[in-house]
Design a protein that fits this description.
By secondary structure, the chain is of the alpha+beta class. The chain folds into 2 domains: 2-51 and 270-402, no CATH class; 99-227, no CATH class. Helix content is 56%, strand content 18%. The protein has helices spanning 2-15, 17-55, 85-92, 128-131, 144-148, 158-165, 208-216, 233-248, 264-307, 309-317, 322-358, 367-393, 397-402, and strands at residues 59-64, 69-70, 73-74, 97-112, 115-124, 136-139, 153-156, 174-177, 180-188, 203-207, 223-228, 259-263. The longest helix has 44 residues, at 264-307. The radius of gyration is 33 Å and the shape is elongated.
C-alpha cells in the first residue's frame, strides 16, 4: 500500500523539479555540513588520542624538583636531586604499577667516521620499550646486565641512523658519544613526530646507569616513567606513588612536595573533552542549516497544498479519505527530506575526503553521524510536513472543488 503512495509522491515532486531541488538544498547543505564538521572534529579527537597513546601505555611521569621551593623560586622538572634509584625500585613494587624506568637525558654529539650529529641521549631501563610503546626494528635492545654494568651500548633512532649511516646497517657499528666509544646494538622502529612537532626518532637510547655515570656524572634520577596495568589503574598508581614518595622523603602534611606526578590519562581525557566540545559545537552550528531546510520544506508543502487544492477536492469527491490525503502529502515531505539527506551525506563524505587530501587535516567519517543525519532529515520531513499534510486533509471537498 505504501509503494503506490511513494510513486504518487515522486510524480508530484517531479512536476516541479527545480522547486523540489531548491527545497532539498537546505537539507543537503545542513546534512553535508554536519557530516563534514563532525568528521573533522572526530578526526582531531582521534589524532590527539593516538598522539597521547604513542607517548606510552597507561603512563605516568614522576619528575623531581618541580614542586620544590628554593629561595622563593620553584625548580624546573628534573632540576633537583630528590629522586633516586631506590625510589624507582620502590615505585616498581607498588600494586598498581607494572613497569618502571628511569629517564636521564643529555644533549650529545654523535660521531661516526666523518659524519656527526647533535641529538638527545636518553638513559633508560629495558622496560622503556613496553612503557613507551617502542619497538626495535633491527638488532636488539640492551639488557638488565648492561644496566648493572653501565655498559657503553646504544640503540639509535631512525633519524640518527639516516644522518650517520645513510642507508647502511648501523647495528654492530661503533659510534662516539662525547668522545666515548659506544657499540650500536639496535635500531628503534620509526615513530614520527609528536603533536608538538618533536621528532621521536631523533634520539639515542643508552642504559640509564651509563648516562648517569659516564655522560652526566650524577647520582640522582631526574625523571621516572611508570606504567600501570590499565587506564583505570593509572589513578590508583598516581595515589600510591604520591603516598610512597611522601613517606620516603619525610614530607609532612602541609609541606610542598619535592616531586611531581603527571598522569597522561588526565592529559588525554582533557584533550579529548576539548575536541568533543568542539565537535558538538561545530555539529550544532551546522545543524541550524537542517532547521532552515525544514522550514523550507514546510513552506513549499504549504504552497503545494494551495496549488493542488482542486486536485485534493477531486480525490475526496471520488472517495479518498482524509487520512489518505494526509499520508500522501506527509510522504512527499518525507521523500524530500530523505532525498536531501542522502545527497547531503554523499556530499559531506566527499568534502571530508577532500579536506583530508588537500589540507592534510585529520578526518574520521562517523557511521553514527551518517545514520543520525539520515534519520534526522526524515524526522524533519515528518515534523515540518505534518502541518501542511494536516491542512490538506482538513479541506472541505466542496470548497476545494470550487477553488480556482
Amino acid at each position: 500500500m505504501i509503494l503506490p503512495v511513494i510513486r504518487i509522491a515522486l510524480r508530484a515532486l517531479a512536476r516541479n523539479k527545480v522547486r523540489s531541488a531548491l527545497t532539498m538544498l537546505g537539507i543537503i547543505i545542513g546534512v553535508a555540513s554536519v557530516i563534514a564538521m563532525v568528521s573533522l572534529g572526530q578526526g582531531a579527537q582521534k589524532q590527539v588520542q593516538d598522539q597521547i597513546s604513542s607517548m606510552g601505555t597507561n603512563m605516568l611521569i614522576v619528575s623531581a624538583g618541580s614542586q620544590r621551593m628554593s629561595g622563593g623560586v620553584r625548580g624546573g622538572t628534573g632540576t633537583s636531586p630528590t629522586l633516586t634509584e631506590e625510589d624507582m625500585a620502590a615505585i616498581g613494587e607498588l600494586p598498581a604499577v607494572t613497569d618502571v624506568s628511569a629517564s636521564v637525558t643529555a644533549s650529545v654529539t654523535l660521531v661516526f667516521g666523518n659524519q656527526n650529529w647533535s641529538t638527545r641521549a636518553e638513559g633508560v631501563a629495558p622496560s622503556f620499550l613496553r612503557i613507551r610503546n617502542r619497538a626495535v626494528a633491527s638488532g636488539e635492545f640492551f639488557s638488565g646486565q648492561d644496566v648493572r654494568t653501565a655498559a657503553r651500548v646504544a640503540v639509535i633512532g631512525q633519524t640518527v641512523a639516516d644522518q650517520l649511516f645513510g642507508g647502511s646497517d648501523p647495528v654492530g657499528q661503533t659510534i662516539r658519544v662525547r668522545n666515548l666509544p659506544f657499540r650500536v646494538v639496535g635500531l628503534l622502529a620509526a615513530k614520527g613526530q609528536t603533536q608538538w612537532g618533536q621528532d621521536q626518532d631523533d634520539t639515542v637510547v643508552v642504559p640509564y646507569t651509563t648516562a648517569m655515570k659516564k655522560l652526566l656524572s650524577t647520582t640522582y634520577v631526574p625523571t621516572i616513567y611508570v606504567s600501570a596495568a590499565t587506564t583505570e589503574q593509572t589513578f590508583a598508581a598516581e595515589e600510591q606513588i604520591a603516598t610512597l614518595l611522601r613517606e620516603r622523603h619525610n614530607i609532612r602534611p602541609g609541606q610542598e612536595y619535592d616531586f611531581n606526578v603527571r598522569n597522561l590519562t588526565d592529559i588525554a581525557e582533557a584533550a579529548q573533552a576539548t575536541t568533543r566540545v568542539m565537535t558538538i559545537l561545530l555539529g550544532s552550528i551546522a545543524g541550524v542549516s537542517l532547521l532552515v531546510g525544514g522550514i523550507g520544506i514546510m513552506n513549499i508543502m504549504l504552497v503545494s497544498v494551495t496549488e493542488r487544492t482542486r486536485e485534493i477536492g477531486i480525490r475526496m469527491a471520488v472517495g479518498a479519505r482524509s487520512k489518505a490525503v494526509e499520508h500522501q502529502f506527509l510522504i512527499e515531505s518525507v521523500v524530500l527530506g530523505l532525498l536531501g539527506g542522502i545527497t547531503g551525506i554523499l556530499i559531506g563524505v566527499g568534502i571530508s575526503f577532500a579536506l583530508s587530501k588537500v589540507f592534510n587535516w585529520p578526518t574520521l567519517i562517523s557511521p553514527v553521524a551518517v545514520v543520525v543525519s539520515a534519520a534526522f532529515s526524515m524526522a524533519i520531513g515528518v515534523f515540518f510536513g505534518f502541518y501542511p499534510a494536516r491542512k490538506a486533509a482538513n479541506l472541505d471537498p466542496i470548497e476545494a472543488l470550487r477553488f480556482e
